[in-house]
Specification:
Elements: E1 2-12, H1 24-29, E2 36-47, E3 51-53, E4 58-60, E5 75-82, H2 87-94, E6 101-108, E7 115-122, H3 125-135, E8 150-159, H4 162-166, E9 172-175, H5 179-184, H6 187-190, H7 204-207, H8 215-220, E10 239-242, E11 248-250, H9 257-265, E12 269-272, E13 277-280, E14 285-286, E15 293-295, E16 298-300, H10 323-454, H11 473-484
Parallel strand pairs: 1-8, 2-6
Antiparallel strand pairs: 1-2, 2-9, 3-4, 5-7, 5-8, 6-7, 10-11, 10-12, 12-13, 13-14, 15-16
Length: 485
């Protein structure tokens, strides 16, 4: 099952060429649909096989390849059309099937000058099936070697974001859009079964593509003696190149930058330049069509070479590997190779698991130490604050004690003043009473003197004082004492 994500740069309506063409089919096709042209980058995705396991058996669901009924739709995607084929010539190449087209879109990438892609929507499923059967694997020109690769697109998504366009959906992985790189993969991966050679080095199949805009193909054809180096560490030992974006990294036995690129970018197909073999990181196996081809449950090796006498690729089986020698020694060597490879991979897996466990342990220890340090610093900070608060509390307590003493002193002073004022008032009242009594006595004396002066009978007499209250001699004595004073 295949899907497309197209990062559109800009979209313009494609106009058909003027009617100067003498082909009558071209004139009639103008009335059926309006072709468009989009500038952008196409990302091709396919579904991953689902693995199911039980207590007794483990099986892998079959991959939905090109000709499965469940994968067929009316959307047809042609991966690459050579640039020497114009839009009108492509319509002529499609022939009578153009009448079944409902929509046609040409997709151009400015970074890829030697080819363009085509997305076609047909009227019904029968028309789409007929188109694929007729043109899948067909050469665009009898004198050239480029063939037509067709996929049924289950979904097509357009986006302005390059990041969104490069992110696969859950359960999907990205395939290269270079036709040569697609043909390098085995059939279970690319659904292409028409290639007879390994497309390596100076193979005419590669050199026929004019500009070699694919970086992977450029690295495969590099003949200047300059070593290919890792883009990260610069080492030239065991270089691997990503089939999706062309990133060059070193192998897992060096510093592992190729597999780090897979983990970061999720591009699972990588080509080893030294052996021209492709590794699938998801399936953890080689997917090069000449390294492994499935016949039942047995893995066999096929040897196909390019015969360039006429500039074309063909099959040339080595007769020395026929018969009993092929069925005995080659199988034995392959079994031993697979056994050694499995053991080596298991050893590497255990080694990396140990390294990961140690790294995890170191990370946990560092985190625990950081937590303990942070807690100690926090505890010390709280302790310092507690000491400062204790000092403040003690100061406040001292101030309260001094205020209490001052308050008690003020209360005592106030009481003494109040007592003095009470005594003073009492003394004043007594003085006032004494003065009032003296005034009364004086008034009585003066009235008595005046009365004696006016009476003839007692004229010349003497006035004697009379004690009015004989029971209070103390008071009279006090009064006399005051008079004496």
């Amino acid at each position: 099952m295949f899907t497309l994500k197209i990062h559109t740069v800009d979209q313009t309506q494609h106009q058909q060429p003027s009617s100067s063409s003498s082909n009558p089919n071209t004139k009639s096709k103008k009335k059926l649909f309006n072709p468009t042209e989009i500038k952008g980058v196409v990302h091709l995705f396919r579904n991953l096989p689902l693995t199911t396991s039980s207590s007794s058996t483990s099986s892998v669901n079959p991959v939905l390849t090109l000709w499965n009924v469940a994968t067929r739709t009316t959307n047809v995607f042609i991966v690459a059309v050579p640039n020497y084929l114009s839009y009108d010539e492509f319509l002529v190449f499609c022939g009578r099937h153009v009448d079944e087209f409902q929509d046609l879109c040409f997709i151009r990438n400015d970074a890829v000058e030697d080819r363009y892609s085509v997305l076609i929507k047909l009227k019904n499923q029968a028309a789409a099936d007929g188109f694929c059967i007729c043109y899948h694997g067909k050469r665009f020109s009898p004198s050239e070697t480029q063939v037509c690769h067709i996929y049924f697109a289950q979904a097509v998504e357009y986006t302005d974001s390059a990041e969104i366009a490069s992110i696969p959906q859950t359960g999907y992985t990205e395939l290269p859009t270079c036709p040569v790189c697609l043909e390098r993969l085995d059939y279970d991966t690319s659904a292409i079964q028409i290639t007879h050679c390994d497309h390596s080095f100076q193979c005419p199949c590669i050199t026929k593509w004019a500009y070699l805009s694919c970086q992977v193909c450029q690295l495969c054809l590099q003949q200047d003696g300059k070593p290919t180096t890792c883009a990260v560490c610069g080492t030239s030992n065991n270089p691997w190149v990503c089939l999706i974006c062309g990133f060059v990294g070193c192998g897992r036995y060096e510093k592992g930058h190729a597999i780090q690129h897979y983990r970061h970018a999720d591009h699972c197909y990588s080509l080893e330049l030294e052996t021209q073999q492709i590794w699938d990181y998801v399936g953890d196996k080689y997917v090069h069509r000449l390294n492994q081809s499935k016949v039942g449950s047995k893995s066999t090796v096929t040897h196909h070479q390019c015969v360039s006498s006429e500039g074309e690729c063909g099959d040339k089986e080595d007769e020395e590997f026929g018969g009993a020698l092929f069925s005995s020694k080659v199988d034995t060597i392959m079994d031993e190779y697979n056994f050694l490879l499995a053991n080596q991979m298991e050893t590497q897996r255990q080694t990396y698991e140990i390294l990961l466990a140690e790294a995890k342990s170191r990370k946990e220890i560092s985190i625990a130490e950081a937590i303990v340090k942070a807690e100690a610093e926090r505890t010390q900070e709280l302790q310092n604050k507690l000491e400062e608060l204790a000092k403040d509390t003690k100061t406040v307590s001292n101030i309260n004690e001094e205020l209490a003493k001052a308050q008690e002193f003020l209360k005592k002073t106030y009481k003494e003043i109040q007592e003095r004022e009470t005594a003073s008032l009492k003394l004043k009242d007594e003085k006032i009473m004494d003065l009032e009594e003296q005034i009364r006595d004086l008034r009585i004396y003066m009235e008595a003197q005046k009365t004696l002066a006016n009476t003839d009978d007692i004229k010349g007499g003497t006035l004697l004082p009379v004690q009015l209250n004989p029971t209070s001699p103390q008071k009279n004595s006090k009064r006399r004492a005051r008079k004496r004073n």
